[in-house]
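Private note to self, pasted from the team thread so I don't lose it. Backbone tokens:
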């Protein structure tokens, strides 16, 4: 057998081994994401069941209030015969707020409010770490808040359930912060995708909701996709397949209809900004009140109950009213009161410290506003706007885009939730306009602008930028250095040393080539020794193991060389001639140059 064949077989074995290692690693990671999907799916099942039990007991049995359900969500319990009682509705949210407030602020204060924001904060600033008790407390507290009449959504609690388990699993397996963040985000996608029966949107949402700019966390999409599909299948096996809402087969035929859709977009933006201002205004008000925190959700619940006394449709989830609006069964006044009342009940329920999500109410508010705009234009130009229900669907997407900065995932969300894919074009227009007009506002305050501003990517961005800069870009900062002859006597060097401010001294051989280097620290101990001045030459002091850099090196490798032996200056030599010295490059100037480049990049981003 020839030598070349032997080498070929040897390298093939190495390649096969590397391939096996990669496959094993991919298989292990896929297994983790499947497990996260299973737990998130089970969490969705438990949470949905708790919500059904709570609605049946609190709203139906105690208050006689039976809000409609979306057509894709079947009631698990038959209705009771309790007569409708507004007075119980008045105080029921306060009782739920008192119980959930005590539970949250006693055992897991970080579970207050809408859980998606807490998960975003954990991703960016806490290495993906979430305390293991948070998902449990969040599940129970949210179920109590929402089923006693509090206005909120299911995505916040279930996002924290999935995220919490992803974080717990990564912590127990002693994985890195980066892997923990990815697994936490996969849990978010799995929880949201399953509870809303929108697996693709759940995966995209987990990757998009982290940033204000239209930017995706690319390393999150595939893991979230795997977990979301598993969780969705598990949830649907228990509660049935199909979309959350049913809708007629809407179609977009007339380009003239884009005009009313643009009006819808700006209406949604105005309503969305009002929603955000109201939500955080009430949140700030409750934070400023000097009373025990666990009582605040009860006060917020009482305010919610007062509104619900007059507008019961604004309590709890409200998805059934969106379903009716899609089929054009609600009047304009009813839809207006539903939208505006939902803004206030959600702000009081969640802003006071209650537990619940903000996606669900946004869907209801957006759908109601879309229904109002659609009905108005249908009355004015019925031949152009033929189906007001289509505006309900597009309004759901546009409103949440306006308040969350997640245009892409929201379009997919609403399409999957309503099984209405023929409205993608108007949805894209409305979501794009809504995003551009409302970009400076967001309901998710923990979002960062982009990856540059994310603490989770600080180190990666630092390395990425350094690798794009070469030493040749800094040649104007490279200082000319005087080469010390290797046969110079130490006595003569002391005279030279007294007249220079340099700390590093390259040494040249008889051909004028770089042969060694030494620093002021190397000679400090013997600098005042008289007896060695004529005996020692600089070749005896310098080291021939020189750490050098070349014009083609990137700054990442340069900084690594600086830190190898904690040196402050590097000789820069020609690429094709390591003995030909160009000059000395100082660490301080490299860092200053990097900081300048970072500032320039940030300035470009702000423009």
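Design output:
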């Amino acid at each position: 057998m020839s030598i070349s064949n032997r080498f070929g077989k040897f390298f093939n074995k190495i390649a096969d081994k590397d391939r096996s290692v990669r496959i094993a690693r991919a298989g292990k990671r896929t297994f983790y994401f499947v497990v996260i999907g299973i737990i998130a799916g089970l969490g969705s099942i438990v949470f949905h069941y708790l919500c059904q039990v709570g609605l049946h007991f609190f709203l139906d049995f105690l208050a006689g209030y039976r809000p409609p359900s979306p057509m894709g969500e079947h009631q698990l319990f038959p209705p009771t015969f309790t007569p409708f009682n507004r007075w119980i509705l008045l105080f029921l949210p306060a009782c739920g707020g008192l119980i959930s407030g005590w539970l949250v602020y006693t055992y897991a204060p970080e579970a207050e409010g809408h859980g998606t924001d807490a998960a975003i904060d954990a991703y960016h600033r806490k290495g993906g770490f979430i305390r293991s008790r948070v998902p449990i407390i969040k599940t129970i507290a949210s179920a109590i808040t929402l089923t006693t009449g509090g206005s909120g959504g299911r995505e916040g609690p279930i996002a924290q359930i999935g995220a919490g388990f992803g974080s717990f699993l990564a912590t127990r397996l002693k994985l890195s912060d980066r892997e923990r963040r990815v697994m936490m985000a996969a849990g978010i996608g799995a929880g949201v995708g399953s509870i809303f029966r929108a697996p693709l949107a759940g995966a995209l949402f987990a990757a998009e909701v982290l940033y204000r700019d239209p930017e995706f966390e690319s390393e999150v999409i595939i893991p979230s996709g795997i977990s979301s599909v598993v969780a969705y299948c598990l949830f649907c096996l228990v509660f049935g397949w199909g979309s959350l809402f049913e809708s007629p087969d809407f179609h977009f035929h007339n380009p003239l209809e884009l005009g009313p859709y643009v009006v819808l977009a700006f209406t949604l933006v105005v309503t969305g900004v009002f929603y955000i201002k109201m939500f955080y205004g009430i949140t700030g008000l409750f934070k400023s009140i000097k009373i025990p925190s666990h009582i605040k959700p009860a006060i917020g619940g009482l305010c919610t109950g007062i509104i619900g006394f007059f507008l019961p449709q604004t309590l709890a989830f409200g998805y059934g009213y969106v379903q009716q609006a899609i089929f054009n069964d609600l009047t304009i006044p009813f839809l207006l009161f539903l939208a505006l009342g939902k803004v206030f009940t959600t702000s009081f329920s969640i802003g006071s410290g209650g537990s619940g999500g903000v996606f669900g109410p946004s869907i209801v508010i957006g759908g109601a506003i879309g229904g109002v705009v659609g009905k108005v234009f249908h009355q004015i130009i019925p031949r152009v706007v033929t189906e007001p229900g289509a505006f309900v669907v597009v309004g759901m997407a546009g409103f949440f885009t306006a308040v969350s900065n997640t245009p892409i995932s929201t379009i997919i969300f609403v399409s999957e939730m309503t099984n209405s894919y023929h409205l993608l074009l108007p949805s894209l227009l409305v979501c794009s306009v809504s995003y551009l007009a409302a970009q400076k506002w967001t309901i998710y305050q923990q979002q960062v602008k982009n990856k540059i501003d994310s603490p989770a990517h600080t180190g990666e961005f630092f390395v990425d930028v350094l690798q794009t800069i070469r030493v040749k870009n800094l040649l104007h900062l490279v200082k000319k250095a005087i080469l010390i002859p290797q046969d110079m006597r130490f006595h003569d060097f002391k005279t030279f040393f007294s007249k220079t401010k340099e700390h590093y001294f390259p040494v040249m051989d008889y051909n004028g080539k770089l042969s060694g280097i030494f620093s002021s620290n190397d000679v400090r101990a013997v600098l005042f020794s008289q007896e060695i001045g004529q005996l020692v030459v600089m070749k005896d002091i310098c080291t021939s193991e020189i750490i050098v850099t070349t014009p083609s090196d990137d700054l990442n490798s340069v900084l690594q060389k600086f830190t190898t032996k904690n040196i402050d200056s590097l000789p820069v030599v020609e690429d094709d001639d390591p003995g030909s010295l160009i000059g000395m490059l100082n660490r301080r100037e490299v860092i200053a140059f990097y900081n300048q480049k970072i500032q320039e990049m940030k300035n470009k981003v702000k423009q």
